[in-house]
Design a protein that fits this description.
It contains 4 helices and no strands. It is mainly alpha-helical and 78 residues long.
């Protein structure tokens, strides 16, 4: 399978995952652990942050509105 096809499948899977409440909760928990919005005092924290940024980029690649929708829903539910 080509890399392009693999990326297409991954992005499709991300879109499907975020159609469910459970999928949104899992992604939010992972992003919360990654401390994307915190300062970066050490290498470990920077690594966690980079993983979070990669996940946000994946969401954006799958659909530029996914992360914004995730943030809005989280704010409304808190």
């Amino acid at each position: 399978m080509s890399e392009e096809k693999e990326v297409e499948i991954l992005e499709s899977n991300v879109r499907e995952l975020l159609k469910t409440r459970q999928g949104k909760q899992v992604i939010w928990e992972i992003l919360s652990y990654c401390d994307v919005y915190s300062s970066i005092p050490g290498k470990f924290e920077a690594g966690k942050r980079n993983v979070g940024l990669d996940i946000i980029q994946l969401l954006d690649d799958a659909d530029p509105t996914l992360y914004a929708k995730l943030l809005l829903e989280k704010k409304e539910n808190d």
